[in-house]
Amino acid sequence: MADNYTERAWYLRCAAEDVAERGVLVGDRGRVLVAAELLDDARILNEDRGLTTATGTWRGTPVTISAFGMGAAIAAVVLHELTALGMRSVVRLGTALAVGEAELGDLIVADSALRGEATSATYVPKGYPAAPDLDLTLALRDAARRSGRRTTTGMIASYDGFYSELFADATMPSSKSVDVAELVRGGVVGLDMESSAVLAIGRSLGVRSGVLCLASVDGRDHGKIEGTDRIRAEQDLLTAGLDALCATRLKD
Q: Which residues pair with 46 in a beta bridge?
């Protein structure tokens, strides 16, 4: 579609000439603004509906970074539109709850994802794997290690219901229906709402995709990174992700 696609994207309100072949998906629109400060020649393309999007260059390579907020459904909308506009390689740089081998503050590299969300099923059949591109994943792992931050590689499990499935807290009614202990026994190291959709949908659309997440919350005791520690961790996440994305060749 991208070769002949001349329309502006419905939600992102930008055109093919605005979008780089390499891209980053983030949840927090503030992370786009931080990334724009790290990129050279960055320009904001869209802020409508909080889907803040910017394009700039990272060490000479064009990159587009776009926010989707929270949840797999909107992440899929943003990924779909960017792909239609010509994006060919994408990484999700987000946050996750640390479980299993992962610890608070880790960078988590997804070598696979469990499809507990419903959005990917609107693109691919049951049983379709949420598997990242191998070359991009290895690049993400190497870049994360170079950051000096503890790095964990493993499976991320993604679900739609934050309070109803993932996070039980005394301050908020919750059922927490996911059996975290069982997931950990199966090799899960992180929980989020979007990674499996990005990987499964990206593969189905022919986009090279990968996931690198900051373990910003401990899934066991709900401890979280805050203040200057969070700022430094976010910068490490963005730098490692951009390095890996730009070091990996686009598919032929």
A: 53
User: Which residue type does 169 have?
Assistant: D
**What tokens appear for 24 in the block?**
């980053």
According to the model, what pLDDT value does residue 70 have?
97
For residues 93 and 25, give the distance between their C-alpha atoms in angstroms, rounded to a whole number.
6
User: What pTM did the predictor assign?
Assistant: 0.95
Distance CA 172, CA 17 (A): 45
pLDDT confidence of 3, banded at 50, 70, 90? Answer: low
Over the range 101-124, which residues count as b (16 or more CB within 10 Å of their CB) and which as e? ebebbbbbbbbbbbbbbebbeebb
- Residue 64 pairs in a beta bridge with 23, 55
Name the one residue in this structure whose structure tokens are 């049983």. 127
How confident is residue 1, by pLDDT bands cut at 50, 70 and 90? very low
| Cα(228)–Cα(180) distance, integer angstroms | 30
